[in-house]
Design brief:
- The protein is mostly helical.
- The protein is built from 4 helices and no strands.
- Helix 2 crosses helix 4.
- The longest helix has 14 residues.
- The radius of gyration is 17 Å and the shape is flat.
């Protein structure tokens, strides 16, 4: 089930191009480039960049996922299918 914020965003999509900071843009680009990698890979990449550019304020993995959802309007719908994640039930089951 979607939370109230997600439902509100679906019913009221952005009507203008949102403004994002250069650090948010870099965070999003890293996140999208590393979508097949782990959260740890994203965090380590951000740490390496911030060591070279200490004034940069990159978003955490959690915050960049939240920002991407906010900008795109696309949010996951999580529905547990079975206790051990072994099967997805369909129909009346």
């Amino acid at each position: 089930m979607l939370d109230k914020e997600s439902i509100h965003q679906l019913r009221n999509p952005l009507q203008t191009i949102p403004s994002i900071t250069p650090d948010e843009r870099l965070s999003i680009e890293l996140y999208l480039a590393l979508t097949e990698g782990s959260e740890k890979m994203y965090e380590r990449t951000c740490q390496a960049i911030m060591r070279c550019h200490p004034d940069d304020k990159l978003l955490s993995h959690y915050l960049v996922k939240k920002k991407v959802a906010e900008l795109s309007g696309v949010r996951p719908i999580i529905c547990d299918m079975c206790p051990n994640s072994c099967a997805a039930y369909t129909g009346p089951w």
